[in-house]
Design brief:
2 copies of one chain form a homodimer. In chain A, helix 1 packs parallel to helix 2 and helix 1 packs across helix 7. Chain A has a single domain, classed as Rossmann fold (3-Layer(aba) Sandwich), CATH 3.40.50.620. Chain A starts with a strand and ends in a 9-residue tail after the last helix. The mean pLDDT of chain A is about 90. Chain A contains 8 helices and 5 strands, in the order βαβαβααβααβαα. The first copy, chain A, has about 230 residues and is of the alpha/beta class. Chains A and B meet through helix 4 and helix 6 of A and helix 4 and helix 6 of B.
Chain lengths: ~230, ~230
């Protein structure tokens, strides 16, 4: 069986790739990375290094034109600053009823649909998707929720004529347990990039830096990307 | 309420646009047309003329790179000929178990996801989508089926944080009834283009030409695009 893995170059998708390669073998795995107009391209560089580490075919896609009308703070065209507080605090601010300012409109739906189109052309019957429980909490990123993933899986299954499914191994797993799984599989976290800013080193202040640090700390190890 | 209409320039989506403008007013309607690497661009020209007729904002998107790996007979890179038989006959050939050769892998899922991203940025809360009963028959185009549209609607509702829905007014309507609805609303069918070939005039032989002719005949009128 051939598998396509959506690879951003961060902790979650890199762990998903590690699991897929472990389970199906590197020759049956294709990584897909999507540019969507982020303020920096550190993630893509990380995805490239990770794919090279595993020796899998790596495809790229630029969907930034689709997001040209969005004012999401992650995107190049936005003047809005990326919040320097944890997701938990951002959710307090939104009241848990609207997405956070770093939500890119229906981004993950679009990533999965693009992956589905390419996966079908490449003979894959499974898409691996690293959405996880923490991201979906409090409506922060509704396109990481269990309800979204289930519906999208159904849409891809039906819309492909029963040829393709999604597997989201972390949809009920939190980030510290993802890191635990990845450490067991010797996932090369030193190659990954999570920070929303594009500096020389991770900023340590944005929501994703804070959550990543906490996930490694919970496993009693130092984040290898900070060494 | 603002509405985004996926507009290919064919009979179904043009009728969907006519209904949306009738219901919500032209200033609340945005048309979105997607290029996906078709062998010809007659459809896009038709979509442009239709949007101009209705006086709605018209956006374009080129997703052809996503389909570069597909060998679908509709696409530029394919040497496969477009079948010159009706859908009903094509379905007999596939046994009703796999999509027909003009199925573009997960195309409509990708169109709807792209529309969702842009609709959210443009403040729309509804996407109009002209999928209809005939196209879904016998698994020909699984991304036109009721099951697909329901799942995709759920995915967009959940993935957008309950901000956006799909409406597919024809999902249980056949093409001759769509034409009936459109004739009542004075939809400008003379501006539309359905044929899969890109000739000066419609070929009259491909599946979509055959079905279109039958739909007008069932209403006792001549297809205005043939005049």
């Amino acid at each position: 069986m051939k598998v396509m893995v959506l690879l951003s170059g961060g902790v979650d998708s890199t762990t998903a790739l590690g699991i897929a390669v472990d389970k199906y073998g590197k020759d049956n795995v294709i990584a897909l990375s999507v540019m969507y107009g982020q303020k920096h391209d550190k993630e893509i560089g990380a995805a490239e290094a990770v794919a090279k580490h595993y020796g899998v075919l790596h495809l790229y896609l630029d969907l930034s034109k689709i997001f040209q009308y969005s004012d999401c703070s992650l995107l190049k065209q936005s003047d809005e600053a990326i919040p320097e507080i944890s997701y938990a605090e951002q959710i307090k601010e939104t009241g848990g009823e609207t997405p956070v300012s770093t939500y890119v409109p229906f981004r993950n739906g679009l990533f999965l649909s693009s992956a589905a189109s390419i996966a079908l052309s490449k003979g894959c019957s499974l898409i691996y998707y690293g959405a996880h429980a923490d991201d979906a909490a409090g409506f922060a990123y509704p396109d990481c929720s269990d309800a979204f993933v289930n519906a999208m899986n159904e849409a891809i299954w039906e819309g492909s004529g029963h040829q393709l499914k999604i597997e989201a191994p972390f949809v009920k797993v939190n980030k510290s347990n993802i890191v635990k799984m990845g450490l067991d599989l010797k996932v090369p976290y030193e190659l990954t990039w999570s920070c929303y800013e594009g500096g020389e080193k991770p900023c340590g202040k944005c929501g994703t830096c804070i959550d990543r640090a906490a996930a490694f700390a919970a496993n009693g190890v130092e984040d290898p990307a900070l060494k």
